[in-house]
Amino acid sequence: MKIQVTKEDIKKGEQRSCEWCPVALAIQRTYDLKNGKDKMVTVDDNSVGIWQDSVEQQYQLPQIARDFIHTLTIGYSLMIKHTSSLSHLR
What we know:
By secondary structure, this protein is α+β, with helices and mostly antiparallel strands. Helices cover 43% and strands 19% of the residues. It has one domain. The protein has three helices and three strands; from the N terminus they run ααβββα. Strand 2 (47-52) and strand 3 form a beta hairpin. The N and C termini lie far apart (46 Å).
């Protein structure tokens, strides 16, 4: 399985969401697996789960993908922390 996470995936993706993170969106787009009634893509820190027609397939993420997810998570956490620390200025 090979994907490319685009700027659009990152923009539309929801950090910390196993179903709607940028990596899940890239997989859905690349393999035409839009989450719905009979299809679902989930991503965690180590693997991808694809459910299609009641059959689940699990794939281990390569290190580069795990690093990317980790970087997104850290960036999101820092953004929240920074935003919270500035809230008194509003």
